[in-house]
Amino acid sequence: MKTVVITGISRGIGKATAEKFLNEGWRIIGISKTGNSPIQHHNLEVQKIDISKPESINVFIEQFNKSDVRIDVLINNAGISIDQGQSISMEILRKTLEVNLIGLIDLTEQLLPKINDGGYIINLSSGLGSLADATSGNYPSYRISKVAVNMYTRTLSARLIDRNITVCSVDPGWVKTDMGGAGATRKPSEPAKEIYEMVTSKIDSGYFWHKGKKKSW
Q: What is the CATH number of the domain that holds 27?
C-alpha cells in the first residue's frame, strides 16, 4: 500500500485530497494543527503538528524516524491568508511566511530521507504567486509567500534529479474553502482529483501546474 503525507488535512483542499487518496486505496498520514479530522478511516492516521513551530515539527520527525514507514507522496497543502487590503503588516508577513514557506520547507527537508526515490512532492501554491499574473497589490504577504514556495519548488526539483523525485507547484484555482470563500468557482474535489492524477502519472518536475497543464511562473 502506498503512503501519502498531506498537511492541512482537516478542511478544504487537504480534506478533499485525503478523501480522494483514501478512495483509491492509499494509506494517509494527515497533518493538522488541531490533530483532528472530520474523516474517519482505518487507513488514515492524523498527527497534531503546528508547522509554524519548529519544535512541533521536530517532535513529529523524531517519532516518525523511529518507524519503518516510507513515503511515496508528500503534499504540502497547509497555508494561511490573513492579509487585509494592500498594506504590508510585518506581523502578518512573518506569520504568513512561518506557515506558508518556512514551516513547509522545514517539514519537507526533514522528511526527504523518508521519501522513496521516484516519489512526488506537491507544493500547493496559488495563481496569486505567479509573477506573470501579478497585476494587483492585494494580499501582499500571501503573494510573497507563494512566490517563494515556487522558487523552493524549482530549487528542490534540481536537487532531487538523481533520486528521480518529481517536485511541482500547483495552482488549485479559486476554490470554495474557508480561504477562498463561498463565491469561488471550484469545488475542493476538483484540485484534489488533479493532484491525484499528477502523482499517478509521469509529469515533468520543477514546473507550475494548473488544471493539469503547465502555467507561467
A: 3.40.50.720
Contact (CB, 8 A) for 206 and 157: yes
pLDDT given at position 85: 86
Q: Which three cell numbers stand for residue 164?
A: 528521480
Amino acid at 97: L
Strands 115-124 and 27-32, sheet pairing: unpaired
**Residue in 151, 196, 195, 144 with CA at minimum distance from that of residue 172:** 195
Quick: pLDDT tens for 75-88.
999 999 999 889 99
DSSP H/E element including 213 = strand 213-214
Q: How far apart are CA 17 and CA 85, in angstroms?
A: 30
Range of the domain at 87: 3-214
Count of domains observed in the chain: 1
Residues in the chain, total: 217
pTM of the complete model: 0.96
Enumerate the H helices of 65-174 as residue ranges. 90-97, 104-111, 140-159
Q: Is the separation of the CB atoms in 21 and 197 below 8 Å?
A: no
- Please tell me what DSSP assigns to residue 87: P
* Residues whose CB falls within 8 Å of the CB of residue 95, separated by 6 or more in sequence, listed in order: 52, 80, 82
Q: How many CB atoms lie within 10 A of CB 130?
A: 20
